[in-house]
TrEMBL record:
Species, as recorded: Hymenobacter wooponensis
Pathway per the UniProt entry: Purine metabolism; urate degradation; (S)-allantoin from urate: step 1/3
The protein's Enzyme Commission number: 1.7.3.3
Taxonomic lineage: Bacteria, Pseudomonadati, Bacteroidota, Cytophagia, Cytophagales
Protein name: Uricase
Catalytic activity, reaction form: urate + O2 + H2O = 5-hydroxyisourate + H2O2
Any one GO BP annotation for this protein: urate catabolic process
Family of the protein in this entry: Belongs to the uricase family.
Protein residues bound to urate: 55-56, 156, 173, 215-216, 242
Positions of O2 binding: 55, 242
Length: 279
């Protein structure tokens, strides 16, 4: 017997930060998860902890380094942390730092942004996973829990019909999803903020403009558009669950349902995933 692939670290280091400017405050809230890989065989086989940087120390490192080094994007903070763990610990061959950022929006009254009050509550999060090993750092950024819905320009027809198929073909249905997207960058010295905003807009624009023949069709169109617009993106992965809105049968009450009334179902749901890569 021998030890196979293994890693350890602290998950969900929840951290918030106020950045105080003279006339306004910034507020950031992130969840950081650290996973370290390397020479930890004897910890597993002998109970020898001499090579183990405790996960408690990893957690403290995140909070301490945030004071000076979490001033910009989550990608920059992730790069700093991953580099820190790998370069200070010879037994660590690879660090993986995953960061999720919660979306807080500044309140605004009569067109005036408030100096220190925010609204939250949207499910959407910005994400990054930075891995660093001997080959250098790699940044995969994205978003998750982005709720998207369109009320037309979506259909699902010409699918297989067998003895168990009852689904009706439709050329006009609701398309709704809780989108997760991630894209790998080809470099690490990038304007991550501008790229994120551009890619998110491209995702939203393609979702809304696309004449969708299926979720799969839209998933590919979104990935393709992000790759076309951004040379620095190597590949795009998307998770697009199909959050069904099923037409309610009004005929049983003597009424016609002109594609207006639906049953919004939570489960079961279609689960569509895919990665779009360059040729
Ligand atoms: O866009 C869709 N893709 C499917 O694979 C599928 N399957 C299904 O029942 N409805 C849908 N919709």
């Amino acid at each position: 017997m021998k030890l196979g692939i293994n890693a350890y670290g602290k998950n969900a280091v929840n951290l918030s930060k106020i950045i105080r400017h003279a006339d306004h405050h910034e507020f950031r809230q992130v969840s950081v998860s650290v996973q370290l890989s390397g020479d930890f065989d004897t910890a597993h086989t002998l109970g020898d902890n001499s090579q183990i940087l405790p996960t408690d120390t990893q957690k403290n490192t995140v909070y301490v380094l945030a004071k000076e080094h979490f001033t910009g994007t989550i990608e920059e903070f992730g790069l700093y942390l991953a580099h820190y763990f790998v370069t200070r610990n010879p037994q660590i061959s690879k660090a993986r730092v995953a960061i999720e950022e919660h979306s807080w929006q500044r309140m605004s009254f009569d067109g005036q942004p408030h100096t220190h009050s925010f609204t939250g509550g949207t499910t959407e999060k910005r994400t990054t996973v930075v891995t660093q090993d001997a080959a250098g750092p790699v940044v995969v950024s994205g978003l998750k829990d982005l709720l998207l819905l369109k009320t037309t320009d979506s259909g699902f027809e010409n699918f297989i019909k067998d003895e168990y198929t009852v689904l009706k073909e439709t050329s006009d249905r609701i398309l709704a999803t809780q989108c997760e997207a991630s894209w790998e960058y080809t470099a690490t010295a990038l304007d991550f903020e501008a790229l994120y905003q551009q890619i998110r807009t491209s995702l939203l624009h393609t979702f809304s403009a696309h004449k969708s023949l299926s979720v799969q069709h839209t998933l590919y169109a979104i990935g393709e558009q992000i790759l076309l617009d951004n040379d620095v993106v190597k590949e795009v992965s998307l998770v697009m669950p199909n959050k069904h809105h099923i037409p309610f049968n009004l005929e049983q009450f003597g009424l016609e349902n002109k594609n207006e009334i639906f049953v919004a179902t939570d489960a079961p749901f279609g689960y569509i995933t895919g990665t779009v890569v360059r040729d």
